[in-house]
């Protein structure tokens, strides 16, 4: 819907007509004027919700231990920062659901521990800070560093291509053929 105007004395009639049309359009007007009987009292969704939670949110110590173990051993490898942090965050969320939430500081340590050597400098800088780094701030810094690394790789590749082309041009010049 578009913007709404608060109901006031000068626009009540228009407002009432619009609401009545909306309720008629959704077959709900009878509940407003009393012509449709109220539905019988229905149970809340609390019981089914609790049953689902009990079935799927396994709170066993074995499950919690397994999740913590997996979280401490997730390597970045060839994954992008977004993929790596998505996996870490998923495990962290599962732990929270199982009743064992991971503190921000612990999450940051786990993330930094799984990074490869190309992230050594930024990891050391983050560890050396006096203040705690939030997950969101860490995400921003790691994404920036990943972009920096890709830019450096692109510069290195471009330099290698230029050197190869220059070498080929030098080798195919008329003076090099006469030798």
Uncertain stretches of 5 or more adjacent residues: none
Distance between the termini: 81 Å
Radius of gyration: 31 Å
User: Helix coverage percent of residues?
Assistant: 55-70%
String of helices and strands: HHHHHHHHH
Q: What best-fitting shape do the alpha-carbon axes yield?
A: elongated
Helix and strand arrangement:
Layout (H helix, E strand, L loop, with lengths): L11 H14 L3 H5 L12 H11 L4 H11 L9 H17 L6 H11 L5 H9 L6 H37 L2 H5 L1
Helix pairs in contact: 4-5
Summarize this entry quickly.
Helix content is about 65%, strand content about 0%. The chain is mainly alpha-helical and about 180 residues long.
Task: Provide an overview of this structure.
With 179 residues, the protein is mostly helical. It has helices at 12-25, 29-33, 46-56, 61-71, 81-97, 104-114, 120-128, 135-171, 174-178. Helix 4 packs antiparallel against helix 5. The chain is elongated. The relative contact order is 0.06. The model has no long low-confidence stretch (mean pLDDT 83).
Structure keywords:
mainly alpha; 0% strand; 179 residues
